[in-house]
TrEMBL record:
Family according to the record: Belongs to the AlaDH/PNT family.
Protein name per its UniProtKB record: Alanine dehydrogenase
InterPro entries attached to this UniProt entry: Ala_DH, Ala_DH/PNT_CS2, AlaDH/PNT_N, AlaDH/PNT_NAD(H)-bd, NAD(P)-bd_dom_sf
CDD domains, sorted: L-AlaDH
EC category name: oxidoreductase
Active site: H96 (proton donor/acceptor), D269 (proton donor/acceptor)
Pathway in which the depicted protein is active: Amino-acid degradation; L-alanine degradation via dehydrogenase pathway; NH(3) and pyruvate from L-alanine: step 1/1
Catalytic activity of the protein: L-alanine + NAD(+) + H2O = pyruvate + NH4(+) + NADH + H(+)
Keyword Nucleotide-binding: yes
GO cellular component terms attached to this protein's record: plasma membrane
Domain Alanine dehydrogenase/pyridine nucleotide transhydrogenase NAD(H)-binding: 148-297
Pfam families listed in its UniProt record: AlaDh_PNT_C, AlaDh_PNT_N
């Protein structure tokens, strides 16, 4: 199989979908890898490193898309990339389609087989989302601390406080991977941390992990309103896989926050959990202010630490991509139910239920969409 790796074009997206080590794994399995010239530079991988590992370096992104059977990316394709879609092309990347209706439409109309990293699931865990959630969670506390500084427009709070002065309050909504990693960093920074989750079991686990270093609260509108009012830094970290994030923090709640407080809505890639986080921002211009509160809504946070993130991401994506390349997509998803859960679009249908529901399409199972092709080894 030909695997294509285009350079990422999203604002300040310096990650790349394969490292030279990944190229070598594909080469050893008998595949060909086409890497766009300069694709790895932002992550510290030179064209020569890829060439040494056996990749062909391609000038011109259109040539990568045209020749590849499977495109591996990091972020969802942007509009300028839709022209490269074609029937039967396999696209393996983050997609977040519930928040990307135009992309879903283009993939559907062009018959692309689109497999989303973020919905590949193993026993209710999301192995291809986890490492980037670890990165974004850790960054969330650090970024929040930075924007709380007066010189960055914040209220002038040091999260750790000092002897005789209160610590800053951090409220984290969603105690999964992002939430846990944000809590680790916020605790490390000396903050007073509260985590809110809907799952009583998860709250118990968090209590076991952090003991009295955090307060835990059940997610309901009353508790959220109280905790948001108190927070100097609010971190949105809720996920319902594939679906648009629920707007748990209303505009009225945001109005109760102190001027110069900060919201880092990590869940913005799925639409965000805060009503006033109504648009995605970029690393170039990461914040906006509403009701005196600084909102940070960058949908590719790990793109700012590309060396760490590229290695962490490809550690987990390459084994799945190898299954697709070695067996062909139909056999790979038939034999691996975890990978099948990643298929969001196939043969002109939306094949992930939550995405279909949120975007107003009929849900069609992967089996139905691909018909008898699924039982044939391709
Ligand atoms: N902005 C960015 O650059 C990045 C964003 N993300 C996003 O961060 C979000 C969180 O991801 P993960 O932590 O990996 O998900 P996760 O599945 O590990 O955790 C989500 C948590 O939300 C909780 N939850 C669900 N409904 C809730 C409710 N109504 N109230 C409170 N908690 C509720 C769940 O019980 C779970 O503990 C996702 O949208 C993910 O795509 C992840 C990485 C990078
Ligand atoms: C999860 C995701 O979309 C990212 O890491 O950019």
């Amino acid at each position: 199989m030909f695997i294509g790796v285009p350079k990422e074009i999203k604002n300040n997206e310096n990650r790349v979908a394969l490292t030279p080590a990944g190229v070598l794994s594909f080469k050893n399995a008998g595949h060909s890898v086409l890497v766009e010239k300069g694709a790895g530079i932002g992550s510290g991988f030179a064209d020569e490193d890829y060439a040494k590992a056996g990749a062909e370096i391609i000038d011109g992104v259109e040539n990568v898309w045209a020749k590849a059977d499977m495109i591996m990316k990091v972020k969802e394709p942007l509009e300028s990339e839709y022209q490269y879609f074609r029937s039967g092309l396999i696209l393996f990347t983050y997609l977040h389609l519930a928040a990307e209706p135009e992309l879903a439409k283009a993939l559907k109309e062009k018959g692309v087989i689109a497999i989303a990293y973020e919905t590949v699931s193993v026993n209710r865990t999301l192995p291809l989302l986890t490492p980037m959630s670890e990165v974004a969670g850790r960054m969330a506390a650090q970024i929040g601390a930075q924007f709380l500084q007066k010189n960055n427009g914040g209220q002038g709070i040091l999260l750790a406080g000092v002897p005789g002065v209160n610590r800053g309050k951090v409220t984290i909504i969603g105690g999964g991977i992002v939430g846990t990693n944000a809590a680790k960093m916020a605790i490390g920074l000396g903050a007073d941390v509260t985590i809110i989750d809907l799952s009583a079991d998860r709250l118990r686990q968090l209590d076991d992990i952090f003991g009295n270093q955090v307060k835990t609260l059940m997610s309901n509108p009353y508790n959220i309103a109280e905790a948001v009012k108190e927070a100097d830094l609010l971190i949105g970290a809720v996920l319902i896989p594939g679906a648009k994030a629920p707007k748990l923090v209303t505009e009225e709640m945001v109005k109760t926050m102190k001027a110069g407080s900060v919201i880092v809505d990590v869940a913005i890639d799925q639409g965000g959990v805060v009503e006033t986080s109504d648009h995605v921002t970029t690393h170039d211009n990461p914040t906006f202010e509403k009701h005196g509160v600084i909102h940070y809504s960058v949908a590719n946070m790990p793109g700012a630490v590309p060396r760490t993130s590229t290695i962490a991401l490809t550690n987990v994506t390459v084994p799945y991509a190898l299954q697709i390349a070695n067996k062909g997509v139909f056999k790979a998803i038939t034999e691996n139910p975890s990978l099948k859960l990643g298929v969001n679009v196939a043969a002109g249908e939306i094949t992930y239920e939550a995405v279909a529901k949120d975007l107003g399409y009929n849900y069609v199972s992967v089996e139905e969409a691909l018909g008898k092709e699924l039982s044939e080894v391709k």
